Amino acid sequence: MPSNLTCEPGDKETAEWAGDIIVDVKDLSVVYRSSLGNVRALDRVNIGIGKNKFVAVVGESGCGKSTLALSIIRLLPTPAEIVDGKILLKGKSLLELDDREMIAYRGTEIAMVFQEPLSSLNPVYTAGDQVAEAIAVRESRIKPSIDRVYSYDKPNLDHSPWRRFTSKLRRRGAYGEYADEVIETLKLVRIPDPEQVVNRYPFELSGGMRQRVMIAMALSERPSLLIADEPTSAIDVTTQAQVLKLMKNLMDEVKTSILFITHDLAVASQVADELAVMYAGDIVEFGTVYEIFSEPRHPYTKGLLSCIPSKFKDEEKLQSIPGTVFDLRTTPRGCKFAPRCPDAKDVCKKDKPALRRLSPSHFVACELP
Amino acid sequence: MISMIKDKIAGFLKIVNSNVSGRVGFIVVAGFILISLIVAVGGYSVLPYNPIKQNVGPPFEPPTWKHFFGTDRVGRDLFSRVIYATPNALLISIMIIGSALLIGTLLGSFSAYQGAIIDDILMRITDLIFALPSLIMAIAISVTLGPGVINMMYALMIMWWPAYARMARGEALRVSQYDFIEAARAAGLSSSKIVLKHIIPNIMTTMIIYATIDFGQVIMVYAGLSYLGLSVQPPMPDWGAMVNSYQGYLLAAPWLPLFPGAVIALVVVGFGLLGDGVRDAIESHL
Amino acid sequence: MGRLFYIAKRLFMAIFVFFGVALITFVLSNSLSDNPLVAWLGKAASMHPEIAQAYTERFHLNDPVYVRFYYYIVGILQGDFGFSWSRHTYVSEVIMKTLPNTIQIVFFAFLITLALGIPLGIISCRYYNKVPDYGIRAFYLAGISSPAFLIALLLLMIFSFYFRLLPTGGLISLGIPRPTTRTGFIILDSLLQRNWVAFGDTIRHVLMPSLALALGNFGYVVRVLRSSLLEVLQKNYIRTARAKGLGERSVFLKHALRNALMPVVTLASLILAWLMGSTLFVENIFSYPGIGQYLVQAIGYLDYAAIIGITLVFTTVVVVANLAADILYTILNPEIQL
């Protein structure tokens, strides 16, 4: 495992990242402003995503994992504000880019797949059109112009005469110009019968298919980083397994890195190389999947692992972690998990623990040995 | 009971005052209602001049301090005439919206609850009436029944209730999904009791809000009909009819047709702002 | 195929409405008086006995109600609405002459409504709850709240009297050579016959009425588009479009606006109904020889045949427009499959 973190052992200051890293997030703090108070969604988060690595970020709802994902691609909703920190993509600082430049990065270097594929796809355009649009963006590099994306003049592969007749009115057929590439991309995501699917509208496809189309759109531009924000949470378990396998294969084929956000530790363990555990806006533990599962060090991680019901363990009750997450509008002193931690000490309540390095790839933010 | 009404009124005022639009709208509407009441009760004596008496001032006098809106060809004070016509507008719109609300809500919620054929029939009827241009049909009916306020009101009532029935039906369908309706049915309440006691109170808020916004529309249509001479007959003053009779003087005495028209617009704007304000306030709470 | 069924359903509905209106108007005309002759012809019954005679024969006015109704419907379907005694000619003839004029101004008014409403709706949304939004809201609120006759009077006063820019009324000035009537639409005819003088003059006459109609209605477009845009811009697929790397302009035009305009299409048929309602007053004030002015005069004369006939025509136009808007909507919204 290439090292993502270099710091002196026992160093209490924030650790430094270096190495073969595609995306490097340093001390990122994000705040959501509201009339009821400001919520600290991310509190000086540090994480590095290596080349061709599958990194999963796991945590409960509200811990900030989606915020982290959206911050990297800079698509945070309006009430959110990045108040501190740096995000480096291949060494280039993303936060300093203006909107135009950031747009150039989106799709081409960083692509994102979202949780609900039905609402994330435009209902009035066919799957083919939307994938073609992504390809058109790549083709025109920095500034996709409207003309380019609107240039539909190839023959229609419609199956219904009515559709053919009304296609002029609906400005369809983008895939006409990029038809071959669209079909290729759909084959890449293992969609059966791509020639039919290009003509289908999102509501005509199943959840798994829609998610594949989303992935196709994202990967068509061959990004360096693919961010997936809970892509499997809205689909059934069998399809979920297929999509996960697909993503893993694609990572190897397309040579991209994947940042996978999920609340499901079990899902993460199936596909990820490295795992980050988040709690209340902090990354509390980071390491390879093997390390996290075999030697979890942070009490929260340990708690999460014990919550996974297993048929191999002899338990009568389902385990859970006592307590709830505190009100995120306040920032308590010391370790955020301390109130719920069974092994909390006095020092835990005083200072916020920094990420401590246990091994070249394993880091934990906890004072306990 | 009284305290519940007081609470509701207090709540309403709070919503209305929460934004600029609501506040301004409320002032205008409140003014409108107030003036109507004062004139209705007080009659000629509350007005600066007798509205139908001629030669209270020099003819064709432009607006001055003595005659706010000027005078017309026979020396009648326009301001008094316009104010005198106010309660008419209020009364007519209350009657129309009140009846449309009543009929529409009852029909709509019963139909939604019963479902099946009754619902279908109601839907067809409302579809039919919806498809017709309301002003034209109102004209046709009014003309047929004969000029006069009562006939015009009948005509407008006929054209108005379907919108409320549709709205009530939609809301009633939504409310019927709630469990307490199921509970009421299980308790053995008759259909009519369920609709009256459980469904209707829950849809009333939406219906009343819609009705408030609708006032402006009624006044517009009523003004149009009275412009065409189909409503209040002379010598009773009436805004729309005034505009019609004075429009020939547009060049010579523009205040004559323009002031009554402007008053119509003002009242409608008031209701529009009130409606916008209420809607904004409710939406921001969601 | 599902779409064809949907359209067939709508067509059916339209026909149903049409017959409903015919029935209503028949009932109305019947209730006017026991003597159907009086109902239809009013004063003309005594003035033109030969026409009264022809009428009675054609519409079987001496026969019971249902027979009359049958011939009434037959008459309508053939375009015969009876005799308009206030104009001393057949209702259908007058309508043929006046309806194209109304369509001219309604058409332009529709264009102006969209040309005003859509950009202002977009601006209103961009500057949500800021000064431009409030300014636009004040503007359109005044527009939709003012009765059509007030707007018409104001425009007349400003442009005809003060600025002396546009003519006070009518369709075409006196000295201008008229084009020969081919299509019935003077504007179209003068264009086709390259009669530029007439064309320009008619445009000047048509401008103010159209503007008066549009000003009273564009507010609805602004309102609907503004809220529709605000809603659409929150949707997830906008986020996806941005994530794909599309520029703001593409995102807005191709994704947001395309979806946001759909409620406006639904609104279009309502707007047409409003325009047709307002045209009565506007035509009256501008002395514009359209079907609205015909109706207003017919009311004055109590020319019932004309009133009933015009009501039917108005309603048919509105129903057809509704149907067209429905069909357009099914084209634009692929989710309508049924």
Throw out a few tags for this protein.
heterotrimer; A: 369 residues; alpha/beta; 2 domains; 8-stranded mixed beta sheet; 14 strands; 34% helix; globular; C: 338 residues; mainly alpha; two-stranded antiparallel ribbon
What can you tell me about this protein's structure?
The complex is a heterotrimer of chains A (369), B (286) and C (338). Chain A is of the alpha/beta class. Chain A folds into two domains: 52-73 and 96-277, 3-Layer(aba) Sandwich (Rossmann fold); 282-364, no CATH class. Chain A has helices spanning 65-73, 99-105, 117-120, 127-139, 146-150, 161-170, 174-188, 194-197, 207-219, 237-254, 265-271, 289-294, 299-307, 346-350; strands spanning 5-6, 16-17, 21-32, 39-50, 54-58, 80-89, 92-93, 110-113, 225-229, 257-262, 274-279, 282-288, 356-359, 362-364. In chain A, the strands form three sheets. Chain A has an eight-stranded mixed beta sheet, sandwiched between helices. In chain A, α9 (207-219) runs parallel beside α10 (237-254). Chain A starts with a strand and ends in a 5-residue tail after the last strand. The model of chain A is unreliable at 1-18 and 142-159 (pLDDT under 50). In chain B, α2 (20-42) packs across α11, α5 packs across α7 (149-176) and α9 (191-227) packs antiparallel against α11 (255-285). Chain B is 75% helix and 0% strand. Chain B has 286 residues and is mainly α. Chain B has a domain at 88-214. The radius of gyration of chain B is 22 Å and the shape is elongated. With 338 residues, chain C is an all-alpha fold. In chain C, 77% of the residues lie in helices and 1% in strands. Chain C has 16 helices and two strands. Chain C has helices at residues 2-32, 36-41, 44-47, 49-59, 65-77, 91-126, 131-145, 148-162, 186-192, 196-215, 218-233, 236-243, 248-260, 262-285, 291-301, 304-332; strands at residues 83-84, 89-90. A two-stranded antiparallel sheet of chain C has the order 1-2. The longest helix of chain C is centred in the N-terminal third of the chain and has 36 residues, at 91-126. The model of chain C has no long low-confidence stretch (mean pLDDT 83). Chains in contact: A-C, B-C. Chains A and C meet through α2, α4, α5, α6 and α9 of A and α12 and α13 of C.
